[in-house]
Amino acid sequence: MSKAGRLVVLVSGSGTNLQALLDASADPSYGARVVAVGADREGIAGLDRAEKANVPTFVEKLADHPSRADWDAALAARIASYEPDLVVAAGFMKILGEPTIGAFPVVNTHPALLPSFPGAHGVRDALAHGVKVTGCTVMLADSGVDTGPIIAQEAVSVLPDDDEESLHERIKTVERRLLVDIVGRMAREGWTVSGRVVRIGNQTGGESK
Ligand code: GRF
């Protein structure tokens, strides 16, 4: 990636990770900027945050397409129209299909220490299992559910009185900082993937395949 890397960020909810990326990219030295925000549903705070920051938005709802394959193709075409260097799935609650995964490097974030507790309820599942340490994972997305090569992880302790909400909020504080740090470093330094091992740095451009 050269100059300010172009980010398309995908959201499905409150968009606090998106907000952290928007805030970071206000500083040109960050090395990346959000050029568009896409969602799979309307009426979410994530889209409001983008509009407030004067970033273009788009919505592709699965229900508006005759098949999942059509939705995948439409989403990829929308993303492509913004010519991203990197796509960031920041709380995007759909599995991305080959048209997107195959065309762009996609960074995904998950509120658990993968490979433990993948899927939509990573925080709830970790609590139910009784783990004492969980955390967050930033990874490259592949076609599976939270199975892509891991870029970075950070641990968060589970406290005795935690419920899903309190634990998720503490994880998200760490997750936002980690995501901003990793996306910025990928934009500024490039990255390589060898098998499942991702390395950031000493690269002129990103390479994810
Ligand atoms: C994050 O914890 C993300 O990992 C999970 O959903 C949360 C999204 O939070 N999939 P936000 O929409 O960025 O506030």
Textual characterization of the structure:
- There is one protein chain.
- With 209 residues, the chain is of the alpha/beta class.
- Helix content is 33%, strand content 24%.
- The chain has 6 helices and 9 strands; from the N terminus they run E-H-E-H-E-H-E-H-E-H-E-E-H-E-E.
- Strands 3-2-1-4-5-6-7 form a 7-stranded mixed β-sheet, with helices on both faces. Strands 8-9 form a two-stranded antiparallel ribbon.
- Helix 1 runs parallel beside helix 6.
- The protein is globular and about 45 Å long.
- The protein starts with a strand and ends in a 9-residue tail after the last strand.
- The model has no long low-confidence stretch (mean pLDDT 95).
- The structure holds 5-O-phosphono-beta-D-ribofuranosylamine (GRF).
- 5-O-phosphono-beta-D-ribofuranosylamine binds next to helix 1, strand 5 and helix 6.
